[in-house]
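Technical note accompanying the year-one report. For the benefit of new consortium partners, we illustrate the data format agreed upon in the data management plan: each record pairs a sequence with a structure-token string. No post-processing was applied to the example shown here.
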Amino acid sequence: MKWIFADAETYYDKQTYTLRKMTPVEYILDPRFEVIGWAVTLDGKNSMWMEDAAFKKFLARLDPEDTAVVTHNALFDMCILSWRYGFVPKLSVDTLSMARATLSHKLKSLSLESVAMHLGLGVKGKTVHDVSGMNLAALKQQPELYTAYQEYSQNDAILCHGLFQALRKLMPAEEYLVNDMVIRMATQPKFQLDTTILAEHLHNIEQSKYELLQRVGVTAEDLRSDEKFAALLRNEGVDPPTKMSPTTGKTAYAFAKTDDGIWALEEHPSLAVQALVAARLGVKTTIEESRTNRLISLSQLTYPSKPGSWMPIPLKYSGAHTHRLSGDWKLNMQNLPRGGALRKALIAPPGKTVVTVDASQIEARLTAWLAGETSLVQQFEEGADVYSNFASEIYDYPCNKKEHPVERFLGKTSILGLGFGMGATKFETTVAVQAASQGIKIEMDALMAARVVSLYRARFRAIPAAWKTLDRLIPAIAGGGTSETFGPCSIGPNCVILPNKMKLHYHELRNEITDGRSQWVYNHGGKTKFLWGGTLMENIVQALDRVIVFDAALRIQREFAIYEEELAHQVHDELVYVVPNDIVEGVQLILTEEMKRRPEWALDLPLASETGKGKSYGEAK
């Protein structure tokens, strides 16, 4: 396979036409878009500069099926290659994604400049800042600047080659295939957008926002006061986000515009909570409004060789600490509310159907298996209704799915939520929020919440025991590693090594005194995070979940080769495909079998899967 390391340079201006103000898809499909040129290197020593016409000739000499293209920020460069040049290589690799998977625990920024400097590969130039508002014709009017610009871009391509050579040693080669899957979800969109649904949804949001704020009775004083705003959130079933004050070392509300906690609530499933947060932050629109407006805008874009309202799915490879994907392009397509209009607006093209497969209860299954909670593992193995069984213990009478949906809902929330050490107060809030989102009313006070938490821990004693085991392993992680293992994972220096050789990093893990008590903390991307056995269990479970789901995705991709079908979307434990109508049943059989296939490192782990289908993503769920 021919490996090419490339960097695209395009026209921009700092005022209106810039990636700082536009998503890559809006930027690339804008009428103002112009390729100034491409820098390409094959060996990392010599690089070539090619203007648009020369680059097209270069691509024409390549066999896409025998070509790998490596760039830094592939969700930009590869979209240009696909949409503007019609070139899709056999393998797309993103050094930004590689850096995110291997260095995000150390670096605040993963820019080419930052990573190259960290690795000692050289200095990235700044000539790009001197060409704002200049197209190719204008640049050629200033030969010295144009030459400097070419050298700047050629240096970027060489740095990209250096990044790849350094980072490839830190991650398994099979992860390139996962990275390629993620990139293709954006570069080769499978979904179209239903503009009628989007327009109706936007109207409904705008109409109801004022009513929502009136209902909760919010005033300017309520918004300014931390305590009153916290009370408003609690009234909506939300536990107010908190942070550790860097000045006092005490816990405080995370309500400032710079706090991640308050911004995270922008994407809360409750529109009332979104409205409150938007009002507190002084934002004119809720996240649901902004996202709907953006999708409407994207539906109006024209692809050069693909007519229709297409929706790329931009996701960040290893966007989370546990290597799960996360949202990108300010869209967060992984957080579309279940049953909501935005999921229904993602539709299959004519002649195709959306097919989904979900790894059923995978976190709860992994938690029980890792902890050695044999009674719960056995229930999963036998296909028992685990949620109804635990609900029966909570209420002290037999419960089943058909006759006791409310009781079973509490059993489900308990099984899925209490495996990582959640306390009674947070559990009470979690139940209230999740019940409200499902239109379910559960009578539960603090006393009952405490009783359910105690019942879970007493009934499944091996799970809290596993938290204590991990508590004992944390000093070993901080101390440089140990020969001990936890399930299929080994304990390394400041990391946990997963069975696929990827690592969960706990950079500068150390013990500190916080609020008068000893607490383990670590750094990740310049931020301080807390760690204890329950949190470590959650990290490991989610990371193993990710390994299982994407191992299934890789197997499915190999089986789908004859159909030439690819992954369309991925959300946590779920894979989404858009396939021809005549192969839907066969596809569902493949998805069902592969998602429940047990990994070699956990042959006694009972897995299950569930598929859905429909003309839209919402209908398939």
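Partners are asked to follow this layout when depositing records. The CA atoms of residues 327 and 333 lie 6 Å apart.
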